[in-house]
Amino acid sequence: MDFNDSKEQAEFRKKCRDWLESNAKLKSEIGDGDEFANIDYLQKAADWQKKKFDAGWAMLHWPKEYGGLAASPMERIIWGQEESQFDVPRGIYEIGLGMAGPVMMQYASEDQKSRYLPPMAEGKEIWCQLFSEPSAGSDVAGLRSKAVKDGDEWIINGQKVWTSGAHFSDYGILVVRHDPNLEKHKGLTFFFVDMKSPGIDVRPIKQITGGSSFNEVYFNDVRIPDSQRLGEIGDGWKVAITTLMNERLAVGDANGADANEAFEWAKKQDDHGNPLIESRAVRESIADWYCQANGLKNTKLRTMSALSKGDTPGPEASITKVVSANKLQAIGNFGIDSMDMSGMLRTDVSDVHSFQNAWLGSPGLRIAGGTDEILRNIIAERVLGLPQDPRADKGIAYKDIPSGSN
Hints:
Helix content is 43%, strand content 13%. It is an alpha+beta fold. It has three domains: 7-92, Orthogonal Bundle (Butyryl-Coa Dehydrogenase, subunit A, domain 1), CATH 1.10.540; 128-236, Butyryl-CoA Dehydrogenase, subunit A, domain 2, CATH 2.40.110; 252-368, Butyryl-CoA Dehydrogenase, subunit A, domain 3, CATH 1.20.140.
């Protein structure tokens, strides 16, 4: 396939670029961004989202009635490519717009879409995703949080964990267990919830990087109207899969130091009197990371090809996260090792800081959004067509599955 822009795409790219150059600065022009999710950063993110919304750039591919432009998938990709070159606030709205928005669009009522989607696109309301639990991270279907029907409401009790942005979110999408007598994938139901509801307790988790973007969320007799159920009772897993497929497109990359940064660092870093780049082992590692980076680039081009034909990218999108997270960890390890003991001293020097962030944060990225092991299973079974792993819980009611408590 020819991945060069068509005439129309080139014109659209120039239009995107012109607007961005008039409203933002290139990454190379200023230093590191603000700390994720502090008050100033939240305000900057809201201001940027509003500015995009007012100019028609916020959610290009959404229907016009919900705040979008009904643009083509390729135009959405072109905008994303251009915006990524500018230093603008990120990480606040991606989950809502990339995951909650699509699932609301597919399962919510028309009144709910009109009420919730435009404020989401404009940046007035922030959404989070409430899936993982202490006993159900990679195996989301093993969750224990309970939903009990009480008239026109549901009473929710349980705990979620690793919920990005819960401490500043207005709403969240939530999957819980309504019937432990069914198999674990069949006893789930999906809702959206007001994060200010009585009984919700959000507790930020301090991370080794110094940030607190993840949270524990406790539900204590939280009441959710049945009108906020997405899908039928028992369709929770089906709706969750829709969300998770969008997750791969919304937050699939592990961003940070890459092969080019490692190469430039090795050229100037001292190794017992010689440039580090003269080490054969270092050159081999950088060559491996360069190959991986280009493999990821071509994998993304495959996704672009599917979108350009109107197809929905499939489970092969899992490849991106597996490779990029492991590559980031290897590059972080390389950067820290090359500095010897001084690598442990926190600094604002941009290249040192990027290696330190990669070293501290990449292990978590290999877990968040699906562990390496789960994603490799998905690739093996659903992309390569290999036999499924044995499932000891298949055909068994959730309450009868052996666990540490029974």
